[in-house]
Amino acid sequence: MISNLLIAVITKGMIVEYVSNIKLCQRDGFEEKLSLKLVCRISLNMAVESMLDIIIPCRLKASRLREKMLREVSPGIPLIVKTYQNTLEAINNLEYKFRFRIHVAIDSPIVGLVLQKYCIPFIYTAEIHTGGLSRCYEAAAILDSENILVVQGDEPCISSKYLAPIISRYIGGHSPQSWDVVTLYTQNNLSKNSVYIVTNNKSKVLYMSRMKIPSSAIKGFLKIHIGIYLFTRRSLNAYHQIECSISKQEDIELLRMITHGFTVFAECISDDNLRIGIDTEDDLLCYQKLLASQ
Fold it and tell me: What percentage of the chain reaches a pLDDT higher than 70?
């Protein structure tokens, strides 16, 4: 029954959203345990006023670590599922209260089957996207999103501590006209796959690179980018429409915005704990050990 349902809805541009009826039963006074009885709701336009859409891009064919989104980080829990679960927990733990939706933007029915098993809402997007932001653009267009928070699918260590400074830009009194994109950086956790940023004294990003910049900086002074972004509909549309050769050379999507004069801010988070983005087999092993030790 479930697989037939998936085949019926897994077409480009479709949204699959699961709503558990456990809360409904609790509200009606029932205490029986339910075994994942679900309602599937399909819509092509689910926009809600003052809604923050959180989109997690998920590409099956990763270049550095084969099918990493489906690799298990703990027994029975794939990477993309862990990132979704931690994102939801992080949002719920924020002191800010606001309306939001979370969807995973996928490019493969294989991933859809996995997400379906865990009752995770997803949007089926085209396979042609080579970057996460491009995939999120398509998903945001389907959702008719006004404000979009992008959380990379290979960043499972996300927490409310990471999201607090970026969400404050969304509901903390900052005018949307004062920024185009807000992202994050930390000064810990150097790795060979880090992306480095340079900002001015007002936190505006001047440049990003996979080379250490400034080149003479030492550990503790380098700013390491974290793959979380806050866009408006206008700025994400602009991102999709512009091209940038430097962005392709550096393999950094956000350089499209920076080199075309858009205002990109980077908020600093201080985190003494290990932050792991999963790019290599060693990263995966390290995160598996971290979870096993908790």
Answer: 75
